[in-house]
Design brief:
Layout (H helix, E strand, L loop, with lengths): L7 H22 L7 H18 L9 H6 L2 H18 L4 E7 L2 E4 L9 E7 L2 E9 L1
Antiparallel strand pairs: 1-2, 1-4, 3-4
Length: 134
């Protein structure tokens, strides 16, 4: 009984074609894009922290941040002004939360979102600014 055999060159062509198609498909589909939001969000948080750390105080203190963190009364007095100032600093599509030793302002940070964070040390404690896209 005779058996039919494929020529070796035909087998090589089939394997080569499969390999080439596999590589081309890998390039076409690629890998998932990295999450590029965090560096930009970190920059927004750092910018907001820098502006607040250099803003002139409204009442007393060396800077706006020191005025806010110097006492619970100072925080309560400046809470609304701080929230408005941070909202003006950041783009409209970015939400924020500012945490001080005496309280927080802004929106609670949601879970499972990319965030940017900046921390500013002051003479009265640390101020943490967290930002994320709305």
């Amino acid at each position: 009984m005779r058996r039919a055999q494929l020529p070796l060159s035909l087998v090589e062509v089939a394997i080569g074609t499969t390999l080439i198609l596999g590589v081309a498909l890998g390039f076409a589909l690629g890998t998932p894009a990295p999450d590029r939001q965090e560096p930009q969000l970190d920059a927004y948080a750092a910018d907001a922290a820098t502006v607040l750390a250099n803003d002139a105080p409204r009442h007393d203190g060396a800077t706006r941040l020191q005025e806010v963190v110097s006492s619970p009364q100072g925080f309560e007095r400046e809470r609304d002004a701080l929230e408005r100032r941070v909202a003006r600093i950041l783009p409209a599509n970015v939400l924020f939360r500012v945490e001080t030793p005496h309280g927080t302002v802004g929106t609670p940070t949601p879970r499972r979102v990319s965030t940017g964070v900046a921390t500013v040390p002051t003479g009265y404690g640390r101020v943490r600014i967290t930002v994320w896209y709305a």
